[in-house]
């Protein structure tokens, strides 16, 4: 049995996922060759890490154990995670620490803006933990962060990856009014897997959230993603594509689920690169402006390059 323990926070030896400690271990099959990546060692990686630490920031790259961290940080690309490192949800797939978060840091928006400036980012991705403890789910903090980046880095385009703001009336409107360039909210998996994989969320609420973004501001690009390898069927993935297109979502990402620890949901199967290529082809046929589907695809991977292609695709295919 393996229990992941947090040895960094003020409360030593606290389980990172206390709700999972007593779960039986879940075994995944061995990783195939196409899913393996090298450990990060480059100078660019070290420089990015220093800037993140100097500004007291949290990144989802580290917290979620992203396999692309070496590649992205070498290029000085990082996805900042605002509102702390502790999530109020306990999704079966996620490696972000769970528990009761602390108070918001009022200076965080400015720190994120400063790090964006120091890294020289043309495109920045901002995500967050779920903050069900806050009346607005952290919507105003998202808006403040967007505005701070606009002031410090006026030419930088901004992509946000938000929680679902479940039961937080008016929260979405606050975030959309701040006018991010890309609004991303991940469905994560197919509806039949929600109870086991994403029990705190509601599938059709998330679809409606994405649809509402377009109703509020059609100029904002919308984006969503799912993981595969969690026990879903092919026809369910195709139905998710249709649901997202009904919500006028522009950009779809599909990546392989990787098990963070043996206490998390097991990988049911590793989807082959050929299958990912097939999903990409189908998704384009269904009308998405941009699709990224591969074993190592993640929501923020190559986000800057993808945004440039997304904008070009809209110009070529106005809706």
The general outline is globular
Main sheet summary: 7 strands, parallel
- Beta-strand content bin: 5-15%
Query: If strands are numbered along the chain, what order do they take across the biggest sheet?
Result: 3-6-7-8-9-10-11
Low-confidence stretches: 1-7
Task: Please supply descriptive tags for the structure shown above.
11 strands; 319 residues; two-stranded antiparallel ribbon; disordered N terminus
Structure commentary:
The chain is 35% helix and 14% strand. Strand 10, helix 10 and strand 11 form a beta-alpha-beta unit. The protein has a 7-stranded parallel beta sheet, with helices on both faces. It has a two-stranded antiparallel ribbon with strand order 1-2. With 319 residues, it is α/β, with parallel strands linked by helices.
Topology diagram in text:
Layout lengths: L4 E2 L7 E2 L27 H12 L5 H4 L5 H6 L4 E4 L3 E2 L9 E2 L9 H12 L3 E6 L10 H14 L4 E5 L9 H7 L4 E3 L9 H4 L5 H14 L4 E8 L5 H13 L4 E6 L16 H13 L4 E4 L9 H14 L3
Parallel strand pairs: 3-6, 4-5, 6-7, 7-8, 8-9, 9-10, 10-11
Antiparallel strand pairs: 1-2
Helix pairs in contact: 4-5, 5-6, 6-8
Short description:
With 319 residues, the protein is α/β, with parallel strands linked by helices.
């Amino acid at each position: 049995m393996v229990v992941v323990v947090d040895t960094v926070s003020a409360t030593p030896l606290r389980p990172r996922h206390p709700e999972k400690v007593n779960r039986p271990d879940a075994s995944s099959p061995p990783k195939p060759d196409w899913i393996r990546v090298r450990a990060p060692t480059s100078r660019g990686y070290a420089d990015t890490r220093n800037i993140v630490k100097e500004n007291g920031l949290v990144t989802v790259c580290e917290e979620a154990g992203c396999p692309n961290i070496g590649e992205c940080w070498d290029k000085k690309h990082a996805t900042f995670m605002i509102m702390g490192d502790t999530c109020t949800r306990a999704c079966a797939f996620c490696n972000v620490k769970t528990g009761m978060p602390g108070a918001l840091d009022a200076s965080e928006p400015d720190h994120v803006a400063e790090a964006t400036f120091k890294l020289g980012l043309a495109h920045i991705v901002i995500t967050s933990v779920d903050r069900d403890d806050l009346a607005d789910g952290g919507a105003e903090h998202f808006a403040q962060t967007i505005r701070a980046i606009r002031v410090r880095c006026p030419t930088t385009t901004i992509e946000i990856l938000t929680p679902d703001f479940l039961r937080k009336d008016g929260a979405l409107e606050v975030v959309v009014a701040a006018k991010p360039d890309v609004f991303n909210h991940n469905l994560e998996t197919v509806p039949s897997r929600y109870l086991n994989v994403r029990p705190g969320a509601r599938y059709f609420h998330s679809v409606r959230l994405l649809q509402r973004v377009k109703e509020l501001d059609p100029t904002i690009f919308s984006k969503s993603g799912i993981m595969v390898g969690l026990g879903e069927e092919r026809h369910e993935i195709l139905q998710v594509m249709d649901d997202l297109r009904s919500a006028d979502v522009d950009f779809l990402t599909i990546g392989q689920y990787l098990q963070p620890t043996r206490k998390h949901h097991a990988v049911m199967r590793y989807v082959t690169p050929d299958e990912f290529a097939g999903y990409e082809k189908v998704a384009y046929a269904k009308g998405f402006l941009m699709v990224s589907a591969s074993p190592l695809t993640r929501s923020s991977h190559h986000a800057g390059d993808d945004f440039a292609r997304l904008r070009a695709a809209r110009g070529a295919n106005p809706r």
